Amino acid sequence: MADEALGKAGLHFDELNKIRVLDPEVSTTTTELKEECKDFVDKIAEFQKIVGSFIEMVDKLAKEVEKEKMKAIGNRNQLKSMAKQREAQEQQLQALISEKKTQLERYRVQYEALLKDEAEQQEFVEQFILQK
């Protein structure tokens, strides 16, 4: 009966028979909630640690990807440059071939003219020898 009267007054006895203002069930529930909160905070801290390492790993990977991307862009640009150089070299060689063909044609015409002159001179020499 004394427990009921104290209970109505808001006073309770705990397991050590000390007077408490809080109901033992509420105290137990509060203690459990405190432990659960501590576990939750620990799990959140562990989660943050895992997420932090994951972000760090993703950042590192992103840097490597960016590095490889820049290499690929450089290689592509170098390839384009080499293609342009080959094209320019091909144009130079085509111009040289054209120039050499023109020179060959000029030499051929000159050769034919010289052959004609030689034939005329040979004929002149033969006529000169025959006239003597």
From TrEMBL:
It is found in: Cell projection, Cilium. GO terms for biological process: cilium assembly; protein localization to cilium. Keywords: Cell projection, Coiled coil. Residues 62-117 form a coiled coil. The keyword Ligase does not apply. It comes from the Eukaryota. GO terms for cellular component: centrosome; ciliary basal body; ciliary base; cytoplasm; intraciliary transport particle; non-motile cilium. This is Intraflagellar transport protein 20 homolog. It comes from Branchiostoma belcheri.
